[in-house]
Amino acid sequence: MTNGQPQDKWKIEVNDRYQKVLGTVITLATAAFFVPVFVLRDLIAVPRDRALVGFLDCRVYLSWCLLAVSVFAGVLFYYLSAKWIKLAWGKPVAISSKLECLLDWSFWISVTAFLLGIGCFVWFATTFRYVR
Question: Which DSSP letter does residue 132 get?
Answer without folding.
Answer: -
